[in-house]
């Protein structure tokens, strides 16, 4: 069933240049103008930001890999951005054919998609997805210590189901703490990154263990959804059409490149992985290198993603589709992805990775505990606050994350607010820095 025209998503609204806090978006540059667009500005905001740079020291899949060419989160994000831009150019041509009277309107689609792809992992904590699981499980096991009846039920729900996607939206959307790296991207770029347009108290968050919006960003998300016309008659928020393309660019990249990394690390021999890539590519030659075959396979997957997007375009624009594009891929591609999923089980059970992830739980828990106790101590002294009179351990923990002037400026804030600030810091840690801070907190000193 397709929504009536009045409820269908509209591209003039979907490509919104508005940013959080703006009453109205700026006028777009005139066609042919040398002025950079709002979406080019988005790109610059991302690549010059500290959260983006820190991805260079965050695990993709293989932790602390001895080979420098093994993917980290930064390289992965750049590659997803490349695939997203290529896919965006193909979709741009499709949209121009669908809406010839609006052809110029789609000039920015490849740039918007590239931005959405670049920031899709920007909220991931240290130690890859093991870091997310460590945060969730450690908090669940220590709720009285960390929450202590000081936080709202929604904050508790957000953190117990801590999600890198929601943390990423927080970083990309907010603007009230530049020191933390909040970027204030345009609504269109934010829409392209949001795969799960619901909050932690939505039943889908419990079922899927995925959501994109913390309660602290609820009002901002509501404004974004209303501005771009994503809210449906039943109050459900539809996915932005470009979010399907960001998601599939990620799906393509991590499946292909994680396997190539596993070959480089001698987890798998090259031959079976190359044969798998050949099946996906369809027209590659067996005498080509693994990298060449991988390139052809990615091209075939991009074309398949475009085919599904075009075939289901009416449902996407009616706000009806929620499932990712890969779920509708042709059998050849779905079978290949199923084989890759089986290979992941061997990667995830690799001895080095298991030991690393066990350590991640202890290290992240140690850091959370230290900050929670320090912030409770700070908040207990709001009415008699003098920074230099804070307990020694409290001051040293606060100094790790914030300049003392920032603490003085915000010392009247409650524990709920400070706890979210702490998780901005903890989620932003690189693997190496998390290991270092955890050791220092434990009293293990290195020269």
Question: Mind explaining what this structure looks like?
Answer:
The protein is mostly helical and 447 residues long. Helix content is 60%, strand content 0%. It is built from 22 helices and no strands. The protein has helices spanning 11-14, 38-47, 50-54, 73-98, 109-118, 128-141, 143-146, 153-160, 164-173, 187-193, 203-208, 218-227, 241-264, 270-281, 290-311, 313-317, 331-348, 351-379, 392-401, 404-409, 415-428, 431-442. Helix 4 runs antiparallel to helix 13 (241-264). Residues 1-6 have low confidence and may be disordered.
User: Biggest sheet: strands, sense, closure?
Assistant: none
Q: Could you tell me how far the N terminus lies from the C terminus, measured between alpha carbons in angstroms?
A: 66 Å
Low-confidence stretches: 1-6
Radius of gyration (Å): 23 Å
Cα shape? globular
Beta-strand fraction estimate = under 5%
Percent helix among the residues? 55-70%
The number of helical runs is 22
| Category by helix and strand content | mainly alpha
- N-to-C series of helices and strands: HHHHHHHHHHHHHHHHHHHHHH
Summed over residues and divided by their number, the pLDDT gives a mean of 91
Total number of strands: 0
